[in-house]
Each structure stands twice: as structure tokens, then as C-alpha cells.
């Protein structure tokens, strides 16, 4: 499921990149998630950009704690844990977090598979 998510994330980014460098909220949210390609990079982020690390850590925490709302998160959260991603809750923008969770659910489907 993790590998499918990464492939779908790549496809989403490729399909939604703006030709004229205009901002795209959903694209920007997914682009911010790219760091979860590597647990090492994610954990190093803590020392480089604490605020971004906290947002992503909360996102990973929310994946684990929203399996009732998004059933696909159950297996995905196990895989994230197995790959070395561990999340904690930090105070973040709840609306942004909810949109990230919706995007993750979308990216876990086969909709963006190529």
C-alpha cells in the first residue's frame, strides 16, 4: 500500500503541476507530503524545519487515528510504522489536516495509478 501511495502521489503531482507557476492548494499539500518517501529524510526534518516536521508528524498520527473514517488507513498506518514513520500530535491547522487526509485517501485508491 505504501508503494502504491508513492506511485499515486508521483502521478498526482505530474498531472497537476501548473504550467504557469500559479499556486494550487491541493498540489501544494501533496508536494509537502513528498518527504515521506524516506523515513530518514522525515526524521532529519526535525532538525531542519521543526514546523514542517510537526505538521507531517501530526498527519502520520492522524492516519493512525482515523481508521474508522478512512478504512484504507489501517493497513497504510501499519506500513508507515514498519518503514519507520512514527507520528505525534502537534497543534496544526485542522482544516488543512483534514484536506490532507482526504487527499491521502484518494491517493491510496487506484485513481492515479499509471
Structure description:
By secondary structure, this protein is mainly alpha-helical. It has one domain (2-108). Helices cover 65% and strands 0% of the residues. It has helices at residues 2-16, 25-33, 39-48, 50-64, 73-82, 94-108. Helix 3 crosses helix 4 (50-64). It is globular. The mean pLDDT is 90.
Summarize the structure.
This protein has 114 residues and is mainly alpha-helical.
Q: How large is the count of helical segments? A: 6
Mean pLDDT, rounded to whole units?
A: 90
Q: Structural class given helices, strands, pairing?
A: mainly alpha
- What oligomerization state is this entry in? single chain
What fraction strand? under 5%
> What spatial form do the alpha-carbon principal axes imply?
globular
Count the E strands.
Answer: 0
Beginning-to-end CA distance, first to last residue: 15 Å
Reading the helices and strands in chain order gives HHHHHH
What is the domain tally? 1
- Kindly provide the radius of gyration, computed on alpha-carbon positions and rounded to a whole number of angstroms: 13 Å
Low-confidence stretches: none
Could you give a short account of the major beta sheet?
none
Helix content: 55-70%
Amino acid at each position: 500500500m505504501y508503494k502504491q501511495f508513492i506511485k499515486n502521489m508521483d502521478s498526482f503531482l505530474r498531472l497537476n503541476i501548473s504550467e504557469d507557476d500559479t499556486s494550487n492548494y491541493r498540489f501544494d499539500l501533496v508536494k509537502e507530503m513528498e518527504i515521506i518517501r524516506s523515513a530518514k529524510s522525515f526524521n532529519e526534518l526535525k532538525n531542519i524545519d521543526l514546523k514542517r516536521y510537526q505538521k507531517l508528524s501530526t498527519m502520520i498520527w492522524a492516519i493512525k487515528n482515523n481508521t474508522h473514517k478512512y478504512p484504507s488507513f489501517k493497513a497504510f498506518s501499519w506500513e508507515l510504522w514498519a518503514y519507520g514513520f512514527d507520528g505525534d500530535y502537534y497543534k496544526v491547522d485542522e482544516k488543512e489536516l483534514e484536506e490532507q487526509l482526504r487527499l491521502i485517501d484518494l491517493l491510496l485508491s487506484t485513481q492515479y495509478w499509471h
